[in-house]
Amino acid sequence: MPRPSRLALVSAFLTLYLVWGSTYLGIRIGIETLPPFLLAGGRFVVAGLALMIWSRARGTPLPTPREWLGVTGVGTCLVLLSNVPIVWAERHIASGVVALFSASSPLMIAFFHGHRTGTSLGRRRAMGLALGTIGVALLASATFDAVPQLLPLVVMVMASLSWSIGSTYGRDWGQPRDLLMASAGQMLAGGLLAMTVSLLSGELSQLDIHAVSARSMFAWGYLALFGSLIAYPVFQWLLGVADATSVASYTYVNPIIALTLGLVFMGEQVSPRMLIATAVLLPAVGLVVTGGGKPVLPETKIEQ
Question: Residues 278, 256: contact at Cβ < 8 Å?
Fold first, then answer.
């Protein structure tokens, strides 16, 4: 795969920073009148189907049985065991706090990436991860008073762990060579599993379609279009052209976006400590993205 241009990389990172930072607010609004498993599963099924149909129209073959196993494994990690718990957790804790727990992913991804490739972090990246951890801790200390119980926090830690495993070791699981078809298969498989959980939990039978607000449906549409159909393939593309630790830097920016949107649209408070944490997180992102001893273009089975 040819080395991507700087403009393409910057655009891709900004997409993850801004779009996935805003999805926490979208989830918060969506679950006001939509059940969590249906909300999460439905958006990925629709996005996965749309992307798969478009890929087939371009002449891309459907995944082989072996590749379906691979995309199902990644979809299980990134959708069923990561995104779905995030949606459920936002019924119990504020969206900004959920984003804070997602920011633990870079540390896990850095560890798994190093184990998978046998490479060290490098001094700049280690400094960036340390700064990022401090920034997240500052944000967390300013918002933990809003956490009412332990279970949602445990669920969030497990979601971050699952996301980190799927983002690193998932590269070695058999995937379609075409990036868009691989992304479509992952979203469709993970979304169908989430819909199965929704069905088994009784969400569909208890759903009153007349009680679903236009506000929640608009949020669901935003999540499906921007959060899944656009940002998810961008994430997978970045995993193929940049190392996973750099890609995971978006989780340091997401809490800033989530807290800002929560302030503007949901009336959540922003304390001076949060502003200090933001000033720490921004240089941390720069160090993580540009760190490492030399540029790394890791091997991948997904090609555009």
Answer: yes
